[in-house]
Amino acid sequence: MQKVKKLAHILLGVFLILLGIAGLVLPILNGIILLLLGFILLSFESKYVEYHLNKLAHKNTLIGTWYEKLLRFMNKLFGR
After folding, report:
1. Any residues with CB less than 8 A from the CB of 72 and at least 6 apart, and which?
2. Distance CA 77, CA 52 (A)
3. CB under 8 Å, gap of 24 or more: what pairs does 60-69 form?
4. Which of 42, 64, 65, 77 can bridge 13 by disulfide, Cβ–Cβ 3.0-4.6 Å?
5. 43-68 b/e with 16+ CB inside 10 Å = b?
6. CB 70 within 8 A of CB 40
7. What is the C-alpha radius of gyration for the chain, rounded to an integer number of angstroms?
8. Measured between alpha carbons, how far is 4 from 13 in angstroms, rounded to an integer?
9. Closest CA to 36 of 64, 10, 61
10. In this structure, is the dihedral angle defined by the CA atoms of residues 35, 37, 39 and 41, taken in order, positive or negative?
11. pLDDT above 80 for 62
């Protein structure tokens, strides 16, 4: 069951990152939020991604604010 959960986090994270990249050029998608959601999901499974995401959140206050809000949301949603 843990492997299925890990695979779901990785696949959904990669999908959200790809959607976020598309959202950077398409005006109807919010690319930054989708990218953050994707990286937060990947950070559940990778300490490397989590480290760099925290580092980025501490450097940029706007991204840090969104990161904290989205992290709380994802923790509620996925029960981490």
Report:
1. none
2. 22
3. 63/32, 63/36, 66/32, 66/33, 66/36, 67/36, 67/40
4. 42
5. bbebeebeeebeeebeeeeebeebbe
6. yes
7. 12
8. 14
9. 64
10. negative
11. yes
